């Protein structure tokens, strides 16, 4: 009788768990509309991913509140698993969201994250803009993206227990696209300020901060990471 029970229940023991629902949130950057991620969104849906091309008022609302809003908007989807594709300041909105999600054991599992040109250690261009006459017109978040160790960007939680892939844009000539920034850069950020230190994979491409969003090779690499956890699984 015991042998019979083992045979009957064995199939249920070896079935791999699957996500009942999985949504990929696309999170754009500072002062951009979500349309900037439209081509990525189309590519994801062509590969049978369920997506939300998230829109938020990045120019007017500070990062703390943006993170809180993203937290509640994800909760309202009632999905059990989420992944993210972020561009630029979108990575900081995601990390700000984690301050609210960290103690919520009902929050969806974060499966994978692709960060495109993220200012994880601050945006070098913010160091310059923070001292110009434009500062009063730039909203509350430019100052929070400065590169000093005490800045908001450098105090945000670092995602753990998830797979992170970072895409770095640069010119590749040691000088970069923006002469106001010392060293190689994508026009706004130096490569070293994009890294968290716990990335599973890093992809470096010779494109600026915005053209990186429309390059076929980059789009294919995003799909690869979301599927396999590597930008180039072959």
3D structure, described in words:
With 234 residues, the chain is α/β, with parallel strands linked by helices. It has a domain at 19-121 and 160-168 and 194-228: Rossmann fold (3-Layer(aba) Sandwich), CATH 3.40.50. It has helices at 2-14, 38-46, 63-77, 90-101, 124-129, 152-155, 216-228, and strands spanning 22-27, 50-54, 81-87, 109-116, 163-169, 201-205. A 6-stranded parallel sheet has the order 2-1-3-4-5-6, sandwiched between helices. α3 packs across α4. The radius of gyration is 20 Å and the shape is globular.
Quantity of strands, as a count: 6
Radius of gyration: 20 Å
Under CATH, the homologous superfamily of the domain at 19-121 and 160-168 and 194-228 reads Alpha/Beta hydrolase fold, catalytic domain
Shape: globular
* Mean pLDDT figure: 91
The unreliable regions are: 1-17
Give a brief rundown of this model.
Helices cover 31% and strands 16% of the residues. The chain has helices at 2-14, 38-46, 63-77, 90-101, 124-129, 152-155, 216-228; strands at residues 22-27, 50-54, 81-87, 109-116, 163-169, 201-205.
């Amino acid at each position: 009788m015991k042998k019979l029970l083992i045979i009957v229940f064995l199939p249920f023991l070896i079935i791999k768990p699957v996500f009942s629902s999985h949504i990929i949130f696309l999170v754009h950057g500072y002062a951009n509309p979500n349309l900037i991620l439209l081509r990525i969104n189309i590519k994801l849906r062509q590969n049978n991913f369920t997506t939300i091309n998230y829109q938020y008022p990045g120019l007017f609302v500070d990062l703390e509140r943006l993170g809180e809003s993203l937290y509640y908007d994800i909760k309202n989807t009632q999905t059990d698993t989420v992944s993210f594709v972020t561009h630029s300041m979108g990575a900081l909105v995601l990390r700000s969201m984690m301050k609210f999600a960290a103690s919520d054991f009902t929050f969806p599992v974060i499966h994978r994250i692709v960060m495109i040109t993220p200012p994880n250690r601050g945006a070098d261009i913010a160091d310059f803009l923070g001292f110009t006459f434009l500062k009063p017109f730039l909203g509350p978040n430019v100052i929070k993206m400065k590169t000093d160790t005490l800045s908001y960007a450098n105090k945000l939680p670092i995602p753990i227990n998830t797979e992170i892939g970072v895409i770095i844009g640069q010119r590749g000539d040691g000088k970069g696209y923006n002469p106001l920034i010392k060293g190689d850069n994508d026009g706004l950020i130096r490569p070293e300020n994009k890294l968290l230190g716990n990335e599973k994979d890093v992809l470096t491409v010779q494109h600026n901060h915005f053209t990186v969003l429309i390059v076929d090779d980059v789009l294919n690499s995003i799909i690869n990471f979301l599927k396999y956890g590597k930008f180039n699984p072959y």
